[in-house]
Amino acid sequence: MEAEGRRQILLLGLVVILALAIYRAWSVTSVPPAQSSNGASNQTMNAERGPAGPRSKSSGIGAPDVHLNALEADRPKPVESQRNLFRFTSPRRPAPPPSTVFTPPQPVAPPGPTAPPGPPAITLKFLGLVERREKSERIAVLRDAVGHIFYGAEGAIIEGRYRIVRIGAESIEMSYLDGQGRQTIRMSGG
Fold first, then answer.
1. CA distances (Å), 42 to each of 35, 36, 50, 56, in order?
2. CB 129 within 8 A of CB 116
3. SS3 of 2, please?
4. pTM of the model
């Protein structure tokens, strides 16, 4: 019982201290301004209270000085402007007027005849090389897009329209039968 009584006394003391703190804070912020007929008496009252007074000018709590005559004065009217508060750039200046110098248009030459298109590319793949030692001859193995396999030595005609011009170690050179469309095909192996 003794512990409970101490707890109640302590709690009552805390409530009293809290109530005093709230009252002090409320009374300092809610002091009504002094009612007077002229501003001179307000200034003399503030001077009499001195810097330690609760309503001194240095504490910043005193009544603000309101100039009612300034509220009734004429004000300048707003003017139209090009200012945009939501842009970070300055407004662009207008472009200078165009020059009056006349330049005649240049005549456009008609395009010349285009070169005739060459023959289409050779679509064969160079798969590998077979060497015959007894004749010291190289034979190229080729495959078309469908999967047919062709083979031939230098000068051989493949598929009735291509000629093997030269066989190298890693590539062959082929052309059409008439000698046009010469193309080098590298070994792909697959």
1. 9, 7, 13, 11
2. no
3. helix
4. 0.40
CB proximity list for 123: less than 8 A, separation 6 or greater: 144, 145
Contact 102, 163 (CB under 8 A): no
Token pair for 105: 């248009």
What CA–CA distance (Å, rounded) separates 56 from 45? Answer: 9
Name the token pair of 184. 């080098």
Kindly report, residue by residue over 21-48, the tens digit of the pLDDT. Answer: 999 888 877 655 555 444 444 444 444 4
Q: What SS3 class is residue 174?
A: strand
How far apart CA 166 and CA 60 sit, in angstroms, is: 103
Structure tokens at 152: 């031939």
